[in-house]
Every structure is written in structure tokens, then in C-alpha cells.
Amino acid sequence: MTFHGWTDAVLDFYDGLEVDNSKGYWQAHKNVYEEQVRGPMQALLAELADEFGAAKMFRPNRDIRFSNDKTPYKTNVGAMLGHGYVQLSAEGLAVGCGTYSFATDQLARYRRAVALDLPGEALAKIVDDVRSAGLTIAAAGTLTAAPRGYPKDHPRIELLRMKGLVTWKEWPVEPWLATPEAKDKVIAVLRASAPLVQWLETHVGAPEAERSYRD
After folding, report:
1. In terms of Cα–Cα distance, which of 163, 68, 188, 168 is closest to 127?
2. Second label for 118, Cα 20 to 30 Å away, from 22, 110, 144, 203?
């Protein structure tokens, strides 16, 4: 299957799910999800996997075990592509790349690298370039003050306060969403984010728990 974009049927599907987030609605429109939502996303991931890495789509079901919100279905479709993330909803398309939330050991390595002149200045330059390309920088959380052990007037205090580091770009619904141009938008973000991904791989790496599992 070749990726041609997402039709208005996707937007109608998620608009309806926002109003009626129930098993009945889902079962009645499951074919729309499979053919108009899941199918194009799988095609997109297949076409980009060689350049950006292994792909994995997230399940449409929400994990409601520990949530006060018991609605059973997500109102977006999301997928990982290497270090990247692609999401589509009735609001439009979004793409991110990086590590949204550092594990404890990752955070320690990240802050040490940011504080050092060579890797820290390199990251600051990457962040400036990413922002110049029209992307934003985000994280799962940001401290309101300097982390313990680091001066509050550090030249890279903004980066030191972040508990993760990702690029992010959102687009509202536009006619190009139903065309192959949607793939070009995703590619542009992932390519612009590649230096950030490389910096994180070099200076932060995987969580220790994941390393132990792989060993």
C-alpha cells in the first residue's frame, strides 16, 4: 500500500469519537479506522522505516486502570518511528522527535553533558537550529529553578531545567493532509531533528534498565 494521505473520513471518525467514545461507536465505525486511519499510517511508517528506524503503532485502546477518565478509546492515532513520533487527530497532524521524559540515570547524564562546555554548547547550537527551522522544544516537565548542584546563572540553565528533550511541530487540518505532502511534512521534522537525536544517543543513551535487559 502506498501512502496517499488521510481523507476527511479520518477527521469525521475522530470528531464522532469525541462525541461518543463508546464500544458501540467503535464497532460501528471499525472499518473506517482500519481502512482510513490505520491503513494509511502503516503505509507511511513502512515508507519511512528504512531512513528513520523501526516503527510501532500504538493501540487505539486507552489504559484506564489508573485513570479517572474511563473513556475506552484514544481520540488520536499515534506511532513511534525510531526516535520520532507521529500523531493524527481531528485537530491535525503532529510530529516530534527525541526523549520526552528522561529516566533518572538518563537525566543525570544529560545534565552533566549540558553543563560541560563542548557538549553543552553543541546542544545549544542544535536547539537554536531546530527553532530556526520552525520547530519547538518541549519536555515532559521543566524545573522552575536550577537543578540541585548547578548554578542558577548557568549559561544553559534553560536546558538544564528540562526533564526531557524533544522537537515538536503541529499543523491544523489543511487540504494537503489528504495528499502525499503529509509525508513530506513528517520527513522534514524528522530530518531537522536528526542532530538532536544523535546528541542524545551520544551523551545520554538508553536507560540503565533497558541496557540491563538487552545484556
Report:
1. 168
2. 144
Say what the pLDDT of residue 210 is.
61
Q: SS3 for the chain, per residue? A: CCCCCCCHHHHHHHHHHHHCCCHHHHHHCHHHHHHHHHHHHHHHHHHHHHHHCCEEECCCECCCCCCCCCCCECCEEEEEECCEEEEEECCEEEEEEEECCCCHHHHHHHHHHHHCHHHHHHHHHHHHHHHHCCCEEECCCECCCCCCCCCCCCCCHHHHCECCEEEEEEEECCHHHHCCHHHHHHHHHHHHHHHHHHHHHHHCCCCHHHHHHHC
CA distance 138 to 163: 9
Instruction: Extract the C-alpha cell encoding 83.
Output: 526516535
Q: What is the mean pLDDT of residues 101-126?
A: 98
Find the mean pLDDT for residues 126-133.
97
% of the chain at pLDDT higher than 70: 97
Cα angle: 2, vertex 4, 187; to 5 degrees: 90
Domains along the chain with CATH numbers: 1-75 (no CATH), 91-215 (3.30.1460)
